[in-house]
Design a protein that fits this description.
By secondary structure, the protein is of the alpha/beta class. It is built from 3 helices and 10 strands. It is 21% helix and 38% strand. The longest helix has 18 residues, at 18-35. 33% of the residues are buried. Bound molecules: inosinic acid and magnesium ion (MG). Inosinic acid (IMP) is lined by residues 51, 76-77, 82, 105-113, 158-160, 164-165.
């Protein structure tokens, strides 16, 4: 892990190691596998681009029941703050009608994105919608919507790495870094 990284105008310092993240994903995958061991039909794993790309790839290789991968691209953030207004930049890559869906997200902050997607999928006829997020900021999340699977909770700090970005940079680092104060 680097001592610090600079992205645009900001400096970030080490926060979570790749080992810690992978251990948390191991534990989460075990729970998800247990709950889906009698699954008859393939479940749709919906990767929320771009942030969840690394988490989805780590999670899916640990899942041992039939899954079908789909993607969607939404945007709500600009800079280091969640905007709350969700834009569907790219629609879902397949039909979810009558299907069980697990949304795969990098981090839940205000929850605006998950509330939007949950509603969107139900309106499109999904038979079941579950939310799976690598990280959660519980100090910020105040939505009534249940988060089914969360690998780790973190305080309300701005982080990058493991798919997460600061204005599109930083997604490629395998460890997570936090904004230096
Ligand atoms: P929400 O809609 O407010 O829950 O925001 C969720 C989205 O904001 C996530 O999909 C992330 O892409 C982004 N986000 C939230 N917190 C952070 C952070 O600390 N670093 C980078 N992106 C974040
Ligand atoms: Mg995201």
């Amino acid at each position: 892990m680097k001592e610090s990284i600079t992205l645009h105008d900001k400096t970030f310092v080490p926060y979570l190691t790749n080992e810690e993240l992978e251990a948390a994903i191991d534990r989460l995958a075990e729970i998800i596998n247990l709950e889906h061991q009698n699954e008859k039909e393939p479940v749709i794993l919906l990767c929320v681009l771009n942030g969840a790309i690394m988490f989805t790839s780590e999670l899916m290789k640990r899942l041992d029941f039939p899954i079908e991968l789909m993607t969607i691209k939404v945007a709500s953030y600009s800079g280091t703050r969640s905007g709350g207004h969700i834009q569907e930049v790219m629609g879902i890559t397949g039909s979810v009608k009558g299907r069980k869906v697990i949304i795969c997200e990098d981090i839940v902050d205000t929850g605006a994105t998950m509330v939007y997607l949950d509603k969107r999928l139900r309106e499109s006829g999904a038979s079941d919608v579950k939310i799976c997020s690598m990280l959660l900021k519980p100090e910020v999340y105040k939505q009534p919507l249940k988060l089914d699977y969360v690998a780790m909770e973190i305080p309300n700090r701005f982080i990058v790495g493991f798919g997460l970005d600061y204005d599109q940079l930083g997604r490629n680092y395998k460890d997570i870094y936090v904004l230096k104060d």
